[in-house]
Fold this protein.
Amino acid sequence: MHLKYRRSKRPRDRKAEAPRYNASMDDSRSDVLILGGGVIGLSCALYLLRAGIGVRVLEQGTPGCGSSHGNCGTLTPSHAPPLTMPGTFGLALRSMLRADAPLYLNPRFDGPRLRWLLGFVRHCNWRDFEHAAAARATILRRSRALLAGLVRDEGIDCGFAEEGELYVYRSAKLRDADERHHAAVLDRLGIEARRLRGDQVEAMEPALKPGVAGGLFHPGDARLRPDRYVAGLARRVRELGGAIVNGARIDRLDVDGRRLTHVRTTRGVFRGERVVLALGAWSPLLARQLDLRLPMQPGKGYSLTYTRPARAPRHALVLREPAVCVTTWADGYRLGSTMEFSGYAEGLNRTRLDALRRGAASGLHEPEGPELLEEWWGWRPMSVDEVPIIGPSTRWSNLHLATAHGMLGVSMSAATGELVAAQLAGAVPALDPLPYAPARFGL
């Protein structure tokens, strides 16, 4: 289910307009009001509750109904290198001629998307690339370390498995290029990437067709079923005393001076001493009400979910030439990935789903499962510098941001929740918060 927030006019001081609140309305007040019930919002809620802080989560659909639902469910410190590297813009421009390209930039004119793209291009240099890679590696490794304990301690049944992820190459040219760039960056960051020959890869993965040129194995990566993980987070939030309000589409934010006072939704009016904006790709739409221009665009991804095939891969795979991610669970199987920049265009794109099928068929003996369970699309919240935006707003005294995690929301979720909880509780964070601070964009 995909819902969207209304585009609203700029805020004004609505103190004079505010109605009188009766006792029942006072019950809607919370220590922290979290806007968004995806994996990031729920992770923030869980860590805040663990710190003894009361929370209420407002979700426009149901928990995890957006990008938290249909992604590939991989936990990947190996994805620390960002898209912002020299050459990416040229690749994106060439993709405009191929609607099935793994990275596709829709040529339709869109002012906000064009402004984001120009900002993205400015970050496509080696200095910004190295800065973003270091920031992403730090939060990814912290989150990966936390997740194993979180799943265990909170009793979340989500098919969590620590078996690594394997990049598979059929082209020696692409293999060599990734060894020079991707693997070399991981070496500098201290993230293990094992170089494998083609015969070693085929021995590890009998599900692969012959003709493999080589591979990169990332033993520190893991996988889980994202929908079940989010459901488990939501269950624990409620069990620990947090409230989750479903179907609460946000219509308006009321402010008084530099402070958010009320959040008006289709399920009523809510207040919080602190407000956390964790709306993923919808964050920029709502932030406009606060005169905040979040440098983000939705990056549309797709997935196909099946029952498990007989010759399912043993590890999570990335088939590099078609850029298809393959994830196997004990009771399911998913093909996913692709990145489409088409603004807030909704709906399935058959061309891109067919590209996933062709890409899987090029590398696997049994590319699809016996029964197709779901065709899915979702918007990933892509920041202009490929680093998440986490921390207090410099312009609104009680607003905290936790958004722009791109393709790595599940992977970064635990560390994001821990960081937000530490900041709101006045504790010393486990991570240096500076690389993720909204202040870098004047937010």
Summary: The longest helix spans residues 126-153.
